[in-house]
Amino acid sequence: MSILCRESEIPLYRQIADDITQKVNIGELKVGDKIASETDLSEFYEVSRMTVRQALNDLLRERVLVRKRGFGTFVAEHSVERTFHPDRVTGFFDEFSNENAVLKSIVTENALITPPKAIAELMNISETTPVCKLTRVRTLDGQPIVVDESYLDQSLWKYLDGTDFSEISLFEYLLEVIGERPNSSNISVRASAVPQNMAAYLKVSSGAPILNVEMVNKYSDGRVMQVGRLYCPEWLGIKFAIGR
Q1: How many whole angstroms separate alpha carbon 165 and alpha carbon 243?
Q2: Inter-helix orientation angle 12-25/49-61, to 10°
Q3: pLDDT tens by residue, 66-123
Q4: Which of 9, 24, 37, 196 is deepest in the core (most CB within 10 A)?
Q5: Cβ of 25: how many Cβ atoms within 10 Å?
Q6: In this predicted structure, what is the pLDDT of residue 143?
Q7: Cα radius of gyration (the chain)
Q8: Band of the pLDDT at 63, cuts 50, 70, 90?
Q9: How far apart are CA 138 and CA 105, in angstroms?
Q10: CA nearest neighbour of 62 among 234, 239, 219
């Protein structure tokens, strides 16, 4: 009997990918274990080999699995993790620049806007005070790993307007142009379903589980420099380093 739900809105290939990911997470499949062949998996899940191939391709992009030419497909040695540190505020390029991978940001919005009420409250400003909004899809070897919405103090607009953030760090750029990057941060994390407008960017099904990370990053004098909202697929590891 198939373990898949054929009445679900979640495509069968994604259900297979999620099932394999869960087996990795609970230790049923361990690092270095060889994954069954497409033929065996198609028989196990009672689907076509094409459906299985879609699932495996997703897991390869997500770095849950790795393919070794001539040997097969195996559970990858490590997952992609984003670490938050107790002694410094870091960003995408800070965290992943040591990975043997190509880092890139796809900028989908860079504008001066009227902030949503929740953002205005976090920044301690009136809802009529404009803020800069910079939205980027962060990719690692072409695979989207997070959608990053940044709301910044309007005084920074003259530096952000027209700047290409596809291959540079926002925080390092701010350090260069104003002599300061975020000094401290308040961070909250919660689980939710992916917003419909984010699903396509992350290449996940609408309503798929994600982690929302909200960062309130501050200047050295305590004023809010940036509010960051990160939309992370469930396979992206979030790690907090404690102590110095």
Answers
A1: 32
A2: 50
A3: 887 778 898 886 566 777 777 788 887 777 766 566 889 999 999 999 999 999 999 9
A4: 24
A5: 13
A6: 76
A7: 20
A8: confident
A9: 5
A10: 234
